[in-house]
Design a protein that fits this description.
heterotrimer, A alpha/beta, B alpha/beta, C mainly alpha, B: alpha/beta, Rossmann fold, 2 domains, five-stranded mixed beta sheet, four-stranded parallel beta sheet, 12 helices, about 15% strand, C: mainly alpha, ABC transporter involved in vitamin B12 uptake, BtuC, two-stranded antiparallel ribbon, 2 strands
């Protein structure tokens, strides 16, 4: 069972304290990280992925400090998707997704049938199999995002750290993504997604609310105390209500 | 009445004399660009940007009027102490202007002429590719320095020295085809260059046809195919030639019929200036030292 | 076969045919311009055969090898910097090579009176090629150390620029002190395929045999880098070390090419560009095809250099600049909306 634990993480960037005393534990299931702009969500994800070294605290993967793992072993366990999904170069969609198998192949080995299968599956799940031979420059924002998502899925890592995976995606695709996450979570993957869309976040199993670099609250998605914290963190500009059997967040506009 | 006449006479005389001196002192020369440069008096402060021009000015006895030269000028010894102003391509314009020269002497190829002229500096440009160019340059300098007689003397000396050198060339070398390499790129001296003309005066033929111009950049293969009888160039270049692909086939290299000129001699030979006579003598000396041509051919 | 694969095949075939044709044409291009009749006559005499096999053949092959090394480095540099306008000289190799050449020329000139004539000759013979190569490597090492390893591509780029400026200034200082080095330096700057013999070919072939497979193995790293540095790192790549390996390949290939033929412009920039325009692909293909395209390009330039004003030669660097510049202009005009 995969587990990632962050203890008292602190990060300063450019003189500002971006994260302070952040502690959380990630296990199989779908965790959504939310918070107002500038709360430090992307930075936290980078620290969890081992891409940024914190200046305080530590991250442990399955009980072992992150730094003690070799890079390929870490990469096989943690798949990371960046918020800024830009691509340069001339790779086709399928070739991009195939790069997701790097943690397993290394730089020299040729892809085998298992890798091809993983790529095909990932593209099916992310619904981008139709344009496997097209290049990102020829795709729309949403189509490109699905290719990049497929790349992360192709790693077949037990822990997914996804920064704004729903960028550019229209509601039907967001919905199918949510279903994908639930399926994966139920099957034992730890899906961690930073989401700005609170309604989508409320579909997850657990919520972590980050505010000004600190964990304001965390817990199961249907916890009323969590909801209250959410509303307060967003300065009362949202309302959380039960709609059609599920929690949803609405903008609360005083007009 | 007589007094008035005498005063008038003196006034007319002095006016004439003054006018005469002004007409006598104003110097007007056409340089090789066709530009006419005129100075109120022969220049007292001269900057030269080509070693051959430096040497020409000194040969005319006006060495003391030089206030600055290019970095390559090194003859006579006294010019080494003068401020060095860069080469033709990167001359230091500000420093030149700061020296307040009456005239700057450069080669036609210099880029900075427009810049200097726009700053009010007088520039005279001279071609330096053939013997006629050298003679013309000396004559122009003679006019500039108001010493035309000196210019004629210098040129006569050059021609005399070349003829004397020609007399020393051994009969075996006469009529032989020579390849003179100016630069290891390779650039060579064609028959119409001043070097080619000197070689002709010395009784040699040029391995290059005249059609290629004075200083062509050659395909190295051409040199091997043409099989010159004698090879000349800077010592270091000639020593390297055997290492060039295919050049071991050159008979001249195999038979050691080469003139590898040490640096000072090489500089002497490639400057189209007043020392061309000395250059001819140096070449004649080398030719005299050459081993005889291989009889089997 | 997908259209992509078709284009790759067409490019490969096209380059092979073009190379073969131009190489054969090159064998007929000599001191008398382009003359197949002359070639046949030459093959009949011992002297002629020497010309063809000792001068023309190695020069033709050498031009291709030089171009291949430059094309390979260019493709690798463009991948490393993720910039289609990067060229292999960006890492300080060019300025380092020039400084090496200038130092040897100046030593021969300055020390000409102090050191023996024989030493000066030996220095000059081995020195120029060796100095250029060593200088290129030193230049890149300086860039790497200034950038403190290759952790950040931007640092590498900036360091390369700084090193380039510094080493160029150093060359200028040396030529100021020893003006006789200036002519040699300018000849080196322009580049020349004129004296490539079998020794040069052997050295470059060896270099290509080492750098091409090494670059090919690193191709996947370049592919991963197209997703961004952080994503590439998250895929388990030790980017610092791998970038240094790429820089080493670029330095070696560029250093070899430059030490044999001087600073020939545009080949490293244009060849990979051409390949990507015609057949976009993963870096595994682009690197190899870039090398092939570079070889073909320089080969064409060399044959033209020998043929156009025979027996005189156009400096090959001018032709590559014309071909390269012309291609860039055509590219710009094509992009403008009608």
């Amino acid at each position: 069972m995969i587990s990632l634990r962050a203890s008292e993480i602190g990060v300063s960037l450019g003189g500002a304290r971006v994260l302070d005393g952040v502690s959380l534990e990630l296990r199989p299931g779908w965790t959504a990280i939310v918070g107002p702009n500038g709360a430090g969500k992307s930075t936290l994800l980078r620290v969890l992925a081992g891409l940024l070294a914190p200046d305080a605290g530590e991250v442990q993967l399955e009980g072992v400090p992150l730094g003690a793992w070799s890079l390929p072993e870490r990469a096989r366990r943690i798949a990371w998707l960046t918020q800024q999904g830009s691509t340069t170069g001339d790779l086709t969609a399928r070739e991009i997704v195939l790069l997701g198998r790097l943690p397993h192949l290394g730089i020299v080995a040729s892809p085998g049938p298992a890798d091809e299968l993983a790529v095909d599956r990932a593209m099916e799940e992310a619904q981008c199999a139709d344009w496997r031979d097209r290049r990102p420059q020829q795709l729309s924002g949403g189509e490109r995002q699905r290719v990049l998502l497929a790349r992360a899925l192709a790693v077949e890592a037990p822990l997914l750290l996804l920064d704004e995976p729903t960028t550019h995606l229209d509601p039907p695709h967001q919905a199918s993504l949510a279903r994908l996450f639930r399926r994966r979570a139920a099957a034992g993957t730890a899906v961690v997604s930073v989401l700005h869309d609170l309604s989508l976040a409320l579909v997850a199993d657990r919520l972590v609310l980050l505010e000004r670099g600190r964990v304001r609250a965390q817990g199961p998605t249907d916890d009323p105390a969590l909801h209250a914290a959410l509303v307060d963190a967003f300065e009362g500009a949202i309302r959380i209500e039960r709609v059609a059997g599920r929690w949803a967040a609405f903008p609360h506009l005083e007009l | 009445m007589v007094r008035a006449a005498r005063i008038l006479f003196l006034a007319v005389l002095s006016t004439l004399a003054l006018a005469g001196r002004a007409a006598h002192a104003k110097v007007t020369i056409r340089d090789d660009r066709g530009v006419t440069v005129s100075l109120d008096a022969p220049p007292r402060r001269i900057v030269t940007l080509l070693p051959s021009l430096t040497e020409s000015v000194c040969a005319m006895g006006a060495c003391d009027r030089l206030v600055g030269t290019d970095r390559f000028s090194n003859w006579p010894k006294s010019v080494e102490a003068l401020p060095k102003l860069g080469g033709l391509d990167d001359a230091q314009v500000e420093r030149i202007v700061a020296l307040k020269p009456d005239v700057v002497l450069a080669s036609v190829a210099a880029r900075l002429m427009d810049r200097l002229e726009s700053l009010g500096v007088r520039v005279m440009a001279f071609d330096a590719r053939s013997r006629a160019d050298v003679k013309r340059t000396l004559a122009a300098l003679g006019q500039l320095l108001e010493a035309p007689g000196q210019a004629d003397e210098v040129w006569a000396g050059v021609e005399r020295d070349i003829r004397a050198a020609a007399a020393r060339v051994p009969a075996a070398a006469r009529g032989q085809r020579v390849y003179f390499e100016v630069d290891p790129t390779p650039y060579a001296a064609g028959p119409d260059s001043f070097i080619g003309e000197t070689l002709r005066e010395l009784g040699l033929r040029n391995a290059l046809p005249a059609a290629l111009g004075p200083f062509p950049k050659l395909n190295p293969e051409f040199v091997v195919r043409t099989q010159p009888d004698i090879v000349m160039g800077a010592e270091a270049s000639v020593a390297d030639m055997a290492g060039r692909p295919g050049w071991t086939a050159l008979h001249a290299l195999r038979d050691h019929r080469t003139c590898g000129l040490p640096l000072p001699t090489y500089e002497l030979v490639v400057r189209p200036g007043p020392r061309m006579g000395e250059a001819a003598a140096a070449l004649a000396d080398c030719l005299a030292r050459l081993p005889p041509p291989a009889s089997t051919r | 076969m997908t259209s992509d694969a078709q284009r790759r095949l067409r490019l490969a075939v096209g380059l092979s045919i073009a190379t073969a044709l131009v190489a054969v044409a090159g064998m007929a291009a000599g001191g008398e311009g382009w003359s197949p009749a002359r070639l046949l006559r030459d093959l009949g005499t011992a002297d002629g055969r020497l010309l063809v096999f000792q001068i023309r053949a190695p020069r033709t092959l050498g031009a291709w090898l030089t171009g291949a090394l430059l094309g390979l480095s260019g493709a690798a540099a463009q991948g490393l910097f993720r910039n289609p306008l990067a060229d292999p000289y960006l890492l300080g190799s060019a300025s380092g090579a020039v400084l090496g050449v200038v130092l040897v020329l100046a030593a021969a000139a300055l020390g000409g009176h102090a050191i023996s004539v024989a030493t000066a000759h030996a220095l000059a013979r081995v020195g120029l090629v060796g100095a250029a190569f060593a200088g290129a490597l030193v230049g890149v090492l300086l860039t790497l150390s200034l950038a403190r390893g290759a952790q950040e591509t931007m640092h590498l780029l900036l360091a390369g620029v700084v090193v380039g400026v510094l080493l160029t200034a150093a060359s200028d200082l040396v030529t100021n002190a020893a003006p006789d080095a200036l002519r040699g330096k300018q000849a080196f700057l322009l580049g020349s395929t004129g004296f490539l013999g079998w020794n040069s070919c052997a050295a470059m072939a060896l270099g290509l045999a080492v750098t091409l497979p090494a670059a090919w193995r690193l191709a996947r790293v370049l592919d991963a880098l197209t997703l961004g540095t952080e994503t590439a790192a998250s895929l388990g790549l030790a980017l610092g070390r791998l970038r240094v390996a790429l820089v080493a390949v670029i330095a070696l290939a560029t250093g070899l090419a430059v030490s044999q033929a001087g600073l020939i412009a545009f080949v490293g920039l244009i060849a990979p560009h051409l390949v990507r325009r015609f057949a976009p692909a993963r870096h595994g293909f682009t690197l190899v095809a870039g090398a092939a395209a570079g070889g073909t390009l320089l080969l064409i330039a060399d044959v033209l250099a020998r043929t156009l004003i025979a027996p005189q030669e156009v400096p090959v660097g001018i032709l590559t600049a014309l071909l390269g510049g012309g291609y860039l202009i055509w590219l710009l005009r094509k992009r403008r909306p009608a």
